[in-house]
Amino acid sequence: MLKNSGEAFPYPEIHFRNFRSSMIRVPREPSDDNFKRDDQCFIDSVKQSCDIVLIKTFREIEGKYIDYFSALSGKKLVPVGPLIEEQSTNEDENIEIMKWLDMKKESSTVFVSFGSECFLTKEEIEEVAHGLEFSGVNFIWVVRFPMGERVRVDEVLPKGFLERVGEERGLVVEGWAPQAKILGHASIGGFVSHCGWNSVLESMSFGVPIIALPMQLDQPLNARLVEEVGLGVEVNRDESGGLQREEIAQGIRLVVLEKNGEGVRTKARKCGDVMRLKREEEIDGVVEELLSICRKGKRQ
Question: What InterPro entries does its record include (predicted)?
């Protein structure tokens, strides 16, 4: 089904770093008949697609990879855009968060979130906390714990952290926050993200540059893509893959404050403008492809 699948991937800039192998989820034993690896499920789905494969992305971001896999699979990959949920207009939804953001200067604050399925260890939380503190940048940080784990935020944060940063500079939210609404706020100048694909697309759509801290699965490759297209930077880790507070602080300052980060900020803004303008165009293209399949089916 995959033509020339034995050939090397032609885009070496998208790769796992040496320590990344430990971040990839280890599948269960192949003897488990009820289990299929995610990549095998994807390949099986492509096989079953008669003519086209709809994929959640933008051609402006992944055009060459879309064309490469189309040639490899013999199927036409059609990007559907980011499919971002419209921002809620509910005034009661996390109103305190939005009030806090309203008090901040434009592009002065970073949003920090690692998604709903990635939970940091206590050591990782401490490194992120110190990185935020050392950066000197305003932040809103969403901290989540696994379901059923009875722990308070103040129990895992470094001693005195909340007092040192103060409520004016840092807001720590436990559980959930309206991510799209926050990323769309004018005060947000960067997104410290695990680089889950939905988060990457949301950040790009709102023109917010990414400070990448990928944790597992496809996230390291998503982070490489973000850096390759110039829409963010990946934070350096130690040789074993551990987080380093100084590197986190440096990544935040570069993207939000420093002159050297102006190129990333400008590209992110332009990307957001393009994605907003072409959102309907992508959907129109999908509709035309589906109509074409329907017409072909009727003729047969």
Answer: UDP_glucos_trans, UDP_glycos_trans_CS
